[in-house]
Specification:
Elements lengths: L7 H10 L4 E2 L3 H18 L3 E2 L10 H8 L5 E7 L2 H13 L3 H10 L8 H4 L2 H15 L9 E2 L7 H9 L2 E12 L2 E12 L11 E8 L5 E6 L3 H24 L4 H7 L20 E2 L21 E2 L6 H7 L7
Length: 324
């Protein structure tokens, strides 16, 4: 569901307010209303995942939200639009004009029939606003991003950059400064020796400069059905793992007593079957259920029996339970 307004906004907000988790690839919506939706998710206990909104299969959102959660970010920049990178690559390698490369990009499906959103830099600006919000922990308006596209680039510009040891890339750049967050999208000359200069074709790349660590560059497919689907499924898996963790965590009663001793210290683990339901214990050996450090074998019916039970119980369980 695309677009920065209705019906996407109302549908996602309604789901979050009802306690549901949401996975979306809608970069326009997240760039404009991401903070509002994040507050709704936090208030009502749901998750808002949008890995596919920036860089498709490149796990840059997860890297910023989780991998670098304890690192101060100074700068985020990268190639965030595969269409523009493809055009600049063809222009440099084959000496073609912008118009010729754009026509080929449309024929191959890399560019839309109306390519202005991509080649004028607005797609990159939306993605950059999302990255800047995550990297610097603040609300960043897409309208505050300086935007310049690649339609004015000529083959002569690329040849001049090559003579100086540079390569031209359309970059989105967000930098923390003493006066605030500086954001810009424009064609940039990058040294040929840099890792981001080696990214060619429709591939995307994002570099993160953090305090106390060397720059991290993530490279991968930034567009396409398969890449986007990969990111969406990864987000769904994250939501599923969160639900499973909540099901496994005891909330009180007998389950809580299994986890704590008289002094409140943890005592062993209580394992739950994959569907989160509590295991049914063997009736005759009910007395074993309070013992700590018991391991359980799971049958297809999710019944369980302590492995340390009596010899009779073990004989009876041979035809009911699979080996662990």
């Amino acid at each position: 569901m695309g677009g920065s307004g209705e019906p996407a906004l109302s549908a996602i907000e309604a789901a979050l307010k009802s306690g549901k988790s949401v996975v979306t690839a809608n970069k326009a919506l997240i760039a404009k209303h991401g903070l509002r939706l994040a507050k709704a998710a936090e208030k009502h206990g749901g998750a808002l995942n949008f890995e596919a909104a920036v860089g498709a299969a490149i796990p840059v959102i997860k890297t910023l939200r989780e991998g670098l959660a304890g690192t101060g970010i100074n700068r985020v920049y990268g190639i965030l639009n595969g269409t523009c990178n493809y055009i600049l690559t063809r222009m440099e390698q084959e000496g073609l004009s912008f118009a010729e490369c754009l026509k080929d990009a449309q024929r191959l499906g890399y560019a839309e029939a109306n390519p202005s959103f991509d080649v004028d830099g607005h797609d990159t600006a939306q993605k950059l606003a999302i990255l800047a919000s995550l990297a610097f922990g603040t609300k960043v308006a897409q309208s505050a991003v300086y935007v310049e596209g690649i339609s004015s680039i000529a083959p002569e510009d690329l040849r001049a950059a090559e003579e100086l040891g540079y390569r031209v890339k359309l970059l989105g750049v967000a930098v923390r400064t003493a006066k605030g967050i500086e954001q810009r999208v424009h064609p940039t000359m990058v040294p040929k020796s840099s890792s981001i200069a080696q990214v060619m074709g429709v591939t995307n790349a994002v570099t993160i400069d953090g305090e106390g660590i060397p720059p991290i560059t993530l490279v991968g497919p930034g567009a396409g059905g398969a890449a986007t689907a990969s990111a969406v499924v990864a987000d769904i898996a994250d939501v599923a793992r969160g639900i499973r963790a909540q099901a496994v965590r005891p909330s009180g009663g007998a389950a809580a007593r299994h986890q704590q001793g008289a002094d409140g210290a943890p005592r062993g683990r209580l394992l739950y079957p994959p569907d989160g339901a509590r295991p049914r214990r063997h009736r005759r050996h009910h007395r074993h259920r309070a013992l700590p450090n018991r391991r359980f074998r799971w049958s297809r019916s999710c019944s369980a029996i302590p492995m340390a039970s009596t010899r009779t119980a073990r004989r009876r369980s041979r035809h009911r339970f699979r080996s662990s």
